Amino acid sequence: MSNLNGVTTRKGKIGANRSNNKRAVSALVIGSAVLAGLAFNTPVTIYNTDDLEQYGLDAAFDATNNVNVYRHISEFYRLAGQGTELHLMLAPQASTLTTLVQSEHVKTLLATADYEVRQIAFAVNPSEAPTVVDGLPTDLNTAIPLAQGLADWAYEQNMPCHIFLEGYGLAGASNIVEDLRDIENVEATKVSVFIGQDWKYAETKTDLAQKFADVGTVLGVCSAASISQNIGDNESFDLLNAGLDAWMIPGLSNHKKTMEVYSQLQTFEDKGYIFGLSYPGLAGIRINNDHVCAPVIVDQEGNMNEHTIAYSRVMDDAVRQLRTVYLPKIKKTYPVDENGKLSPAVRVSLEEIGNNVFLDMAKNSEISAGKVTIDPDSDLLVKKELVIYYVVQPLGTVSEITGTINLKTQV
After folding, report:
1. Residue 35 gets which letter from DSSP?
2. Are 41 and 93 in contact, with CB atoms under 8 Å apart?
3. Contact between 373 and 388 (Cβ < 8 Å)
4. CA–CA gap between residue 55 and residue 49 (Å, rounded)
5. Up-side HSE of residue 261: CA atoms within 13 Å toward CB?
6. What does the alpha-carbon distance between residue 292 and residue 180 come to, in Å, rounded to a whole number?
7. CA 134, CA 169: separation in Å to the nearest integer?
8. Who's near 371: CB < 8 A, 6+ residues apart?
9. Pairing of strands 132-133, 26-32
10. How high is the pLDDT of residue 20?
């Protein structure tokens, strides 16, 4: 007998979600003056600057209190785009970077964001002048390893993210400040320091508020960038917007125009600081590079550390995707051979699961290649542990072009 329906098509089951529509999700933690509509240490989720109106947060709040709170959020949305998911939390104005990155409230924010935050920035609005050593607030130096500790905790909780610190209050020349690429006993691959500011906007502030760094700007660019993209990509990210009078003049958090300290910029670059600058022959303002607070390390086996923001984000995303596709395999049973080990065929099928993740990432121009290898000695009888090795080859980046040019009698 036949089915009178003729043709029957059933919907197939949907497996683990491998779409990456959450890569732009960000968080911003700011020390702030009292805001009547929003209690301190209370995370809220917003999607545009209009959402801030319900809390009474606007440009007037910043002007009245001589702080940079709305400023960081508005800059984030100017670069990331309205509609981007941002998890915001205000903290008491007395908060320092050191206290913020150690706050249990920040851990609560990350957890209540459904583990989806991919990049988080910390900003302060000090009411008292910070203690400065070697041209930087001691608070900033202390916060760098602590921020790495927060990133390590987040990784262990299956919500890896990259951290930006506001490099406020720059008070020394480039030859004095600490080399962020060579901090003694510190390898903060998940932490970056931004010391740039929109100088023209900073002119509207007074006293300590004038020595801020536009960390909301760099957070917005990172949110808009693909995970493998350098946030300083010259073709993609121009901070200048003449219509909004934004970033017309780049400066540093010592409230000096970059052109005033032009001779120092290369040293700041070499020491791993991030800021905005203009290139001769290219209109607009770009971020100099995607530094982290760690040296470049390559071992004898060709393994390298996450010495750029892009490498950090690629690794985080790969870890998240691999966890997603392998979680359904937990507690499943598999046949083993006479030695109690998985057969080669089963190992290949399990490897293919992860290799498909890497194939997708390569097709999306996020990595060059990736490979999964199952340890043939994995013990599924007693330890019940499947041991997997992952290898990722990132994309290459052109940081500079060097060439030689000559006049010839004939080409």
Report:
1. B
2. no
3. yes
4. 11
5. 25
6. 8
7. 12
8. 355, 358, 390, 391
9. unpaired
10. 53
- The number of beta carbons lying within 10 Å of the beta carbon of residue 305 is 17
Query: DSSP letters along 330-377, please?
Result: TT----B-TTS-B-HHHHHHHHHHHHHHHHHHHHTTS-SEEEEEE-TT
Q: How many residues does the chain have?
A: 411
Fill in the DSSP letter of residue 294.
S
In sequence order, the β-bridge partners of residue 164 are 121, 192
Amino acid at 295: P
Where in the chain are the domains? 26-287, 309-393
Residue 55 has phi, psi (to 5 degrees) of -100, 0
Mapping DSSP onto H, E and C, the string for 176-214 reads: CCCCHHHCCCCCECCEEEECEEEHHHHCCCCHHHHHCCC
The H-or-E segment that residue 192 falls in is: strand 191-194
DSSP assignment string, 77-129: HHHH-TT--EEEEEEETT--HHHHHH-HHHHHHHHHTTT---EEEEE---SSP
Pair of tokens at residue 35? 């805001």
Cα–Cα distances (Å) from 192 to 40, 50, 188, in that order, read: 25, 29, 8
Residue with tokens 């919500």: 159
Q: Which tokens sit at 130?
A: 């910070």
Secondary structure letter of residue 38 according to DSSP: B
Give me the residues paired with residue 229 across strands: none
The answer, as to whether pTM is greater than 0.85, is: yes
List pLDDT tens digits, range 172-218: 999 999 999 999 999 999 999 999 999 999 999 999 999 999 999 99
